[in-house]
Fold this sequence. Notes:
This protein is mainly alpha-helical. 63% of the residues lie in helices and 4% in strands. Strands 2-1-3-7-6 form a five-stranded mixed β-sheet. Strands 4-5 form a two-stranded antiparallel sheet. The termini are far apart.
Amino acid sequence: MNPPTWLRGRLGVLLSLGPACAVETLPGVPALLLAPVGLWLLFAAPVLLLRGFTDKVVSTRSGSLLLAAGLAVLLDILVALGVNTVLPLLGVERPLPRLVLASATTLVLLVLGILAPQSPRPLLRGAPLSGARPVAWAAGVALLLSVAGPIRLNNGLGGAVSTVALVVVTALIVLLLLRHGRCSPIVLEAGIYAASATLLLLTSLRGWYITGHDIQREYLYFRLTLGGGFWDISAYTDPYNACLSITLLPVSIFRLTGIEDIYVFKAVLPLLFALTPVLVHRAVRNVASPLVALLSAVFFMAFPTFFTDMPFLGRQAIAFLLLACAMLVLTDSRRPLPLRRAVFTVLLAGVVLSHYSTIYVIVGTLATAFAVDKVWRLASRPGRARAHRAVGKGRTRTFLTWWTVAVPAVLALLWAGPLTHTGGQLESTLRVVAGDLFGSGDTRGGSSDTRYSLFGGAGVTPEERLAEYREDTIGYTGADRAEGKYLPLDALAKYPTPVAEKENLPLTPLGRALDTAGLSVPALNGVLRQAAALLLQVLVLVGFVIALRGRGSPFTPVRDQITLTVGALAMMGLFTLVPQLSVDYSVLRAFQQGLLFFAPFIAAGALWAVRRAGRRALPVLCVLVAGLLLDLTGAVPKALGGYPAQLALSNSGPAYDIYYPHAEDRRAAMWLNQRAAGDDLVVQTDRYSFSRLQTLFTVRTQDSVHPALLRSQSYVLLGSTPTRKDEVTVFFRGDLVTYRYPRNLLDTTRNLIYSNEGAVVYR
Length: 763
């Protein structure tokens, strides 16, 4: 008798593991063969083998696949951690070569294939594909442009292709909104993934080297782990090094796939993170209508942090992916509660291994939600609500319990404490926060990002922030300055550092036409951005209120969604009101994380706002969403001018100036690294030149060239932006401040020893 279809498929996966492992262990395998084999072992095969288990955790076919994808990423991290921990005990000094990782992965998959339950559902057979053709065309064009646009910009050409990509993404999302009732769930989710991946790749693929902010340091610790063939937290007790999502996971991907290391960070990690909006859609769809679920994913993608910051935050991208999987498990009430709670906790353990700050915010959110739930029960009158009843749809028991809060908190403390000894930043932040709360802390304001909050105030001006920075530097260098290690203050008085004027894109013909008509385009762009930020916050509050009232709400949230939203909003309020928290953890990133909890309330608020349009409500909603996307992604400012250029669309602007890697900078750094080898002098460069070049330096380096920090004897490297524009940017108390740099100070006190018409070196 022939075995059933599902068994034949499972058997095929198991039989493929041997040849795949053999390919991995052979020398000289071409990258075109190694890459698909490695991706099969790391992601595709685990997903197929885990489906039987995830079917028992979530009830939908796409939800099962998405959860399996998240668990596959966590499994890859744990396999690498396992061999990294066990093999050194057996005398293996370099436990992370391709042979070991491929063999360990294959062995784990074989065990998984034997022990894991089997899925009776076919993978895709029988899945409806209604509405697929137009979505597939739009998605294909968007993804093609997401690669072509950055390539053109990296070659010095214009940003028209990238701008068109944003228009196509907007058209794709409008198409999904208009046809959401006729498209099958798998088609909707494929469209969401294509839109998400396009937005991320337009930014992540900029530059021929590693481009961005945190990603530079993430890449450094990845290279240290890769070069040593061993992850050793004791060698570098830095919180970045404790994030296995940017050390062990990229090492496994690089070793098994042969994909160039920079594209592991620039392409593979963003493409994994692109699953997060799909997970948001699937999680909300468990408790709401298709339109609310689709809007939730769209609002998650439309928030600027998603496509401007997250491509440069590999550790947080993986943490958000696992957190979104946890929310998928939480909202699917059609599976056993104890199993869902256990998997939820395992996924949060993965967040602990992936990113320190994300888990701290999650623990605060969960603790607040648990407390709100307890108070809610006590306040409920007998007969009106039972202790374990949901508020609305589903009528399920409350998901959160004391141990779903306590276990992640304990794991986070253990990981940051005795296991990695990287909790110093948390302890420092908590001390400063205590001072802020009880009146004994720093009286200066927090990050100016709080100005986008309804309760954030006006923020701090760049001039005030730069003055604070100078005051701080003078304060902590006072003793060394008295010994002559720094330039004397009276010598610096002749060299002021005024704040640089903000550089906007020149007005386009359309922008000039509006300006001629009396409408200030720069002011218009600023008002639109501020209005968009306020709109999202207002929609959260409106959606939350109408959902609680239960009348006129497009969806009925379960109890846990309400309490978690209260927890997320409470954390947002804390980040806004306590200055140090807004400095150490971006308010905008906290809002992006909060969208995993309260995105459906924004969707409900938007639907409530357009309800009076009647039959025209959906077209009105499409216009609102399209306008929001085109403005926040930068297409509108690009079409009008009068706004700072965005990295994904231009070879100019503040992000380009400080994050984009130039070949001239790298040549200067390599020359100076060789020149300064064996010399006692420190190399000074600005913060963002250092960020771009830190993987090239082996000599002692200081990441500041502010006149108040210039040493009496040192090398000074000025990168492309300081050299060409006489501008330097500092990051202080959560704010970027760009000031005019006095080059004549260096000309007066030092000798120019290197220049390549893009970067210079003084001694």
